[in-house]
Please model this.
Amino acid sequence: EAGVAQSPRYKIIEKRQSVAFWCNPISGHATLYWYQQILGQGPKLLIQFQNNGVVDDSQLPKDRFSAERLKGVDSTLKIQPAKLEDSAVYLCASSSQRQGRTDGYTFGSGTRLTVV
Amino acid sequence: GENVEQHPSTLSVQEGDSAVIKCTYSDSASNYFPWYKQELGKGPQLIIDIRSNVGEKKDQRIAVTLNKTAKHFSLHITETQPEDSAVYFCAASKYNFNKFYFGSGTKLNVKP
Model:
């Protein structure tokens, strides 16, 4: 089974520029998550999709971050404009539901963003 | 919201020794507690998990214990090997297990 695919692996941008990350979840996984992992910290949930609808975006800085999941499969996360404090690894994860329980919660390798 | 604290932040052990990492959580409604291993340049990988209706779970050299009353859970790795060296994260979740709250991580170094 193919894992969660993310691209690019690395990105360096200047502050105030924009950037976009892409995620392709495991086939058949209806739920998709974007996490932000700042160096030395645990991942923090930014947004959760169920199919193409947003379930939870309470931790997403909506003035600069946006995300979409068209057709309930791939997802993109965008930052515009970027700030220095956005430097982090952005992790995508996906899961399915089996008998009412979350199943197969899997992370991608992440995109490391450096804002200079 | 939930707050998960993890200790220690770094742990160095000799190969063959045991390693223990501890986490506490604040929300008594949390009922699912996974542990993840993250190697350099990779995403977190699930190594073991425990649900609130169980006090202990074991998988070969790895075990997790849960004390619901005290709201803490621990990861135990026995007979450590150099390939166990990585950053380990605990997490807590509730309801349908979708939203995870992670600890700050423990960097484990196993010296040959």
Remarks:
- The two ends of chain A are 37 Å apart (CA to CA).
- The first strand of chain A starts at residue 5 and ends at 7.
- The mean pLDDT of chain A is 92.
- The interface with chain B takes residues 4, 31, 33, 40-45, 48, 55-56, 91, 93, 95, 97, 100-102, 105-110 of chain A (CB under 8 Å).
